[in-house]
Amino acid sequence: MKSEAVNGNENVNASASANANANANANANGFASGSNRPYLLLTPGPLTTSETVKEAMLRDWCTWDNDYNELVQSIRSRLVHLATNSPEIYTAVLMQGSGTFSVESVIGTVIPRDGKLLVLTNGAYGKRIAQMASVYGIATSVLDFGETEQVRASDVEQRLQEEVDITHVAIVHCETTTGMLNPIADVAAIAKAHGKTVIVDAMSSFGGIPLDVHELQIDYLISSANKCIQGVPGFGFIIARTEALAGCAGQARSLSLDLYDQWSAMEAGGGKWRFTSPTHVVRAFDQALRELELEGGIAARHQRYKANQELLVNGMRSLGFCPLLQSKVQSPFITAFYYPQSIEFSFGELYARLKAAGFVIYPGKISAADTFRIGNIGEVYREDIAKLLQIIEDECFW
Ligand SMILES: *Cc1c(COP(=O)(O)O)cnc(C)c1O
């Protein structure tokens, strides 16, 4: 293990091209030599992480001493600073489980018994929020925009006028189902003008696109370790307006997903989790945050993702693939493509050929059209996208 690398002193770009070179000579395990990577994940998460993030997990951590709790506190504070220039107004809570658990901890905790949630949906993740509310018996209003239309702020305004008993509004920032970016600024402004609490699932966008939760008037923003921050899966986090969360005691409909209790235990215990924390994942996340900083922060990472995505779409278009979404609503994280017209085309075949060549892509997730998806977040660089495009061109069997 390279200890200087674990301390975060390694240039992330240098390590990426080392990976890319190593990839050329796969060893007997099918892994690139000198790498723990059998293939590059072009998926929305779990995604390909750096060697140094993986190495950070090669140590067992105890959770009852200050070293570990200070690490947790530092992560919470760094997350708040990534989310806003007004860090004194917000707090961060870490929650065990995948991203869905964190979303559920918000939905199950912050809406009072007499509250009503408006869920804006245009894909599977918005629908999942509505499903959570239904499981908990929370009064819910759903405004659905289909699968390929952006959420429309004017429709939200109308619904809020029609149903004045709505107290909370939930929206997905990047609907990973299609790669659609939703207009969270417009929606939050309207919700706030009506005095509502704003919940944003920014799972696949936070860390990969500049935003400020205070400027956007977001009360709760949810993301997870294994997306644009480029950590490994195991916990999610909630950036909460402290004053809003402080009013949620005793409201949770679940014990383990009680966001208020998780927060107050972390505050009282100086970084202590209520139940066993995913220590290795937390340590890897700390390393991932260092690497985000080394890359130049969220703005620099956004530029890399954007360049990756543009290279991908332009290259795919020239190979005859048509993206599902118009470019003005397309996120820089994941892109859905229609199947080509040819009857010879089989997604399973393309998937298998690309996997054998070192790239894992993603099936589509919408009902209206046959699509597949290619993510470009994680430890993924221009040369990786260029290589992928070359392989698709070479393998072109349809
Ligand atoms: C990944 C993701 C989630 C969480 O999914 P998990 O499988 O629980 O990690 C939630 N919302 C969006 C928009 C996502 O992209």
From TrEMBL:
It comes from Paenibacillus albus. PANTHER family: 2-AMINOETHYLPHOSPHONATE--PYRUVATE TRANSAMINASE. This is 2-aminoethylphosphonate--pyruvate transaminase. Belongs to the class-V pyridoxal-phosphate-dependent aminotransferase family. PhnW subfamily. GO terms for biological process: organic phosphonate catabolic process. Signal peptide: none annotated. Involved in phosphonate degradation. It catalyses: (2-aminoethyl)phosphonate + pyruvate = phosphonoacetaldehyde + L-alanine. InterPro entries: Aminotrans_V_dom, NH2EtPonate_pyrv_transaminase, PyrdxlP-dep_Trfase, PyrdxlP-dep_Trfase_major, PyrdxlP-dep_Trfase_small, SP_NH2Trfase/AEP_transaminase. Substrate binds at R373. The lineage of its organism: Bacteria, Bacillati, Bacillota, Bacilli, Bacillales. Residues 70-336 form the Aminotransferase class V domain. Its EC number is 2.6.1.37. It comes from the Bacteria. GO terms for molecular function: 2-aminoethylphosphonate-pyruvate transaminase activity. The modification N6-(pyridoxal phosphate)lysine is found at K227. The keyword Transferase applies. HAMAP family: PhnW_aminotrans_5 (MF_01376). Its cofactor is pyridoxal 5'-phosphate. NCBIfam families: PhnW-AepZ, PRK13479.1, transamin_PhnW. It is an enzyme of class 2 (transferase). Keywords: Aminotransferase, Pyridoxal phosphate, Pyruvate, Transferase. Homodimer.
